[in-house]
Amino acid sequence: MNHVAIEKTARWQQVEHLPIGLFGSVMGLTGLSIAWRLAHGVFGASLWAADTLAVVAIASFVAVAIGYGIKIATAPHAVRDEFHHPIAGSLFGTLFISLLLLPILLAPVNLLLARAIWTLGAIGMMVFAWLIVSRWMSDQQQSAHATPAWIVPVVGLLDVPLAIPVLDFDPECAAALHQLMVMDLAVGLFFAIPLFTMIFSRLVFQPPMPDAMQPTLLILVAPFAVGYSTYTLTSGSTDLFAHTLYMLTLFMLAVLLGRLRKMQTCCPFRFAWWSVSFPLAASAIASLRYDAFAPSLVNDALSIVALTLATAAIVGLLVRTLIGLARGELRTLSS
User: Does the model's pTM come out above 0.85?
Assistant: First the structure.
């Protein structure tokens, strides 16, 4: 075998190390595109940023899906091990969440395709959440495995209703889907409470998580940020409970922002860093939605800060990821 063939074989073998959690990059890019579209309505921002990010998000989904499809075909044992891993297994939810968010971007372009993708994502997310919760309740779990990744299946349920308003279903179907929105909201928020408590207890009473996992703590913001958006869309109002969810978003974001500052020094760049992208984008979306409901100088400032922070972080992650892939660092970045 010549040198070129050996090099190509080595590159294909690297796909075995592609983590399912890389679909989190699609979530972050999609969320940021949605946030910039909301900024167009609130501040009159140009739509070029939202449209560009939408194209990048879709391209990222296609690239990661192809890569993981190759992994399934060439290294099914690695996929099986990843799925049964007590922590990484929960990150399979990032695939279904991506399928739930992308229709928001696709609906204005191809409504039929958006509906089909959302349906696939909704069914997959609900089955996956049921499977993970059943696994937790059937087998004894170790407290050390209670990490922020466990929240992903729950947050995924909260994402199910987000695209429904833009999918333009007929009134009869919309009425039935509203019941689905209520169910996903109820189950998502119900399980978020004990999971958050377990993870918080693990952080307080046990040794700190490894440095490489520190960025995943930003996931703890997601149930409140996504919960706010889902609750207001489902209820059609911004009542006291919605205010509570938004204020919790701001508080948790303030507590955990220090993790972003430490990312450059805590450990080398890894794909796990993408775990900060969707919580930041979801926080920006929540801030912009709240600002649209209650416009003021303070809320304007909070929205601008949240959107700027999310944009800087996600664009930085995207650039660093592309550089790493160009250098052939897939295996290193996946560790």
Answer: yes
